Structure formats: C-alpha cells, structure tokens
Amino acid sequence: MRVPSNQNYTAWRGSIPVGSLYTVGLAGQMFLEALKEKGEILGSPCKKCDKVYVPTSIFCESCFAELKEHKPVKSEGKVVSFTLCHYDIDGNVLNPPRIAAAVRLDGATSVLIHDGLGEPSKWEIGARVKVKLATNREGSILDIEGFELI
Amino acid sequence: MKEPKLGTALSSEDFKKKRVFTTSYKPKAEYAWDTGFAIGHYLEGLKEGKLLARSCKKCGRILIPPRAFCELCFRPTDDWIELEHTGTINTFSLCYITWDMRKLTDPVIPSVIEIDGATEGCGIMHMIGGVDPKAIQVGMKVEAVWKPADEREGSITDIKHWRPIL
Fold first, then answer.
1. B-chain residues within 8 Å CB-CB of A15?
2. Are A22 and B25 within 8 A, CB to CB?
3. Given pLDDT bands bounded at 50, 70 and 90, which one contains residue A9?
4. pLDDT of A116-127, one tens digit each?
5. Does B76 touch chain A (CB under 8 A)?
6. Structural domain contains residue B17
7. How far apart are CA A46 and CA A65, in angstroms?
8. Closest CA to A84 of A126, A125, A116, A130
9. Contacts of residue B7, Cβ cutoff 8 Å, sequence gap at least 6
10. Which residues of chain A have a CB within 8 Å of the CB of B8?
11. Mean pLDDT of B1-25
12. First-to-last CA distance in chain A?
C-alpha cells in the first residue's frame, strides 16, 4: 500500500507531569545535618573492613554490619576521576563545560561525587582539592558548592 | 531473636515542619507520539468537524477510530468513510475522582460510544455531558457537541462531549 504523506497531524505532542519527593533517609539525614550545622563532611567507618564510607551509611556494603559510629573526614582530598560535561541533562550546550568530579577525601575510602570548580583545563587526576561550602546551607548536597583546586 | 527493622515511618508533619531533609525533582518529560497515517487523518477530520472511519472490503467492517490495517483480515484497509455525528452508549462510568486523585463533586462520565454507520461494537471513548448523570443509560442515543470551528485543533477534545438525543 502506498502510504499518503499529505497529512498535517504526524505527531501528537505533550508532556507528562511527574514529580518526585525524595527523602534522604537515616544516613542522609546525619550527613546533611552535620553539613548544614557544622560544615563537616561526615563519614561512617567500618573497623572490621577498614573502610570509611562518605557520605554516611547505616551499614557496611562489604560485611553488612550495622554502622553506629560516624565521624567527620577531612574537607580536603584527591581527585580520583573527573568528567567534563559539555551538555546538560536536556541536551543544552554548556560553555564552559561543567566538571563532574569524584574525590576521595582524606580519611575516606569511598569517593564523593560533586561539581569541580574553576578552570577545567587545570583539572587533573591526582590533584589536591578542598570542599567549598555554600554560604547559605539548608540541608542539601548543594550545601557543598563543589571542589576547588588547592 | 532480634526484631527485624521495619524502616522509619514519616508523617506529613515531619515534611511540613522540615524535620527531614528532602529533595524534589520534576523531570521535563516531553514526548511526541507518532500518529501514523490513520490517526493523523482522523485528527485532521476532527479539526474539520468530521468523524472519519476506515473500511475493510474483505470483512466489510467500518472502523473508528480508523486503522491502517484490518486486524481480522491482516490486510491494509481500503477507504475513508465519513460517519454521522450520532451514536449509542455502549458502556459508561461515573467518575468522582480525577486521574491524579482529586475529588470531584460533579462526576465526569467517560463512555464507550458506538458511532452510527460503524460496525456494531466499534466505537470511541469519550465524555458524556449536558445531562443529569442519573438519567444516563446503556443503549441511549447520543450526539456529538463540537467546539466552534475556530477553537478546534485536531484533537479528540475538538468534540466537547456527547449529549443524549431527546
């Protein structure tokens, strides 16, 4: 059959209204409270596995033990990896690119993902960075503005 | 034996008083659904105030909404046919709640309407309106109430609703 193409209504457009409200959970609550109130980065050590989780966790991913003690790690650390993002989530071009950084803070064994700050060309794996806190903190991961090169 | 942990229950107070930290997100969930040629022409027809169906010469059925192929004969359908703007209520429901769970005082009345001229059992879903909900019955004759021509946009809502023929 020859399919006629002389039609005006080839696509039906719309948008789906979906929204989410995510609760941060017990571990997230501790982490964000410490961040908001004290400007500290809280971690959860597991002595048995010799690991320190950042952000906090209520259990050890390796041995499944409950983690009850939580203490701050340093606000400085080392770049483990980073990506230059030239597009945002909706496909818009970002110029300069946004830096997505994975940083292992001193005292932590896991990495924390956040924005890298400053000139992208100066970023390299192994570079020393420190946490830059936001001026107004309200209990969100955005209370950290990002990592800046030392 | 140790009691298993059952999670942490939160009340709406916990949210209102900001006792728990939350993050909310609204994704930009846009879509473009390809109408295909049958529904594309159907929508064009609606804009012009016409109800368009497709016929299958082999089984003799007249299909609305129109399809590009006959699902019984597995062959392409043949011709466009313009139908009357009247039909019969096949089934209906009184809905006192919207799809996003808002309560309604006056019900909306989705219905399956068999269109006159189409094969029996062949019809469209649409709203019944302009009538006391208690008076509606299966088998009732109804007619389309169209939007004014300049407000029609090639959408099934170009028909406002269907009202009983008194």
1. 28-31
2. yes
3. confident
4. 999 999 999 999
5. yes
6. no
7. 8
8. A116
9. none
10. 25-26
11. 81
12. 68
Cβ(A146)–Cβ(A114) below 8 Å: yes
Please state the domain extents for chain A: 25-149
Kindly state whether residue B19 falls inside one of the protein's structural domains.
Answer: no
* Structure-block tokens of residue B86: 């009247």
Tell me which residue has tokens 């800046």.
Answer: A148
Split at pLDDT 50, 70, 90, the class of A92 is very high
- Number of domains into which chain B is organized: 1
Going by their DSSP bridges, the two strands B75-76 and B69-70 should be labelled as antiparallel
Displacement of CA B30 from its chain's centroid (Å):
20
Q: For residue A6, count other CB atoms closer than 10 A to its CB.
A: 8
How close A87 comes to chain B (CA, Å)?
15
For residue range B31-77, what is the model confidence (pLDDT) as tens digits?
999 998 899 999 999 999 999 999 999 999 999 999 999 999 999 99
Contact B70, B56 (CB under 8 A): yes
Question: Is 0.85 exceeded by the ipTM?
Answer: no
* DSSP summary character for residue A65: -
Q: Is some CB atom of chain B closer than 8 A to the CB atom of A12?
A: yes
- Across the interface, whether the CB atoms of B29 and A15 are under 8 A apart is answered yes
Domain that holds residue B102: 36-164
Would the pTM count as exceeding 0.90?
no
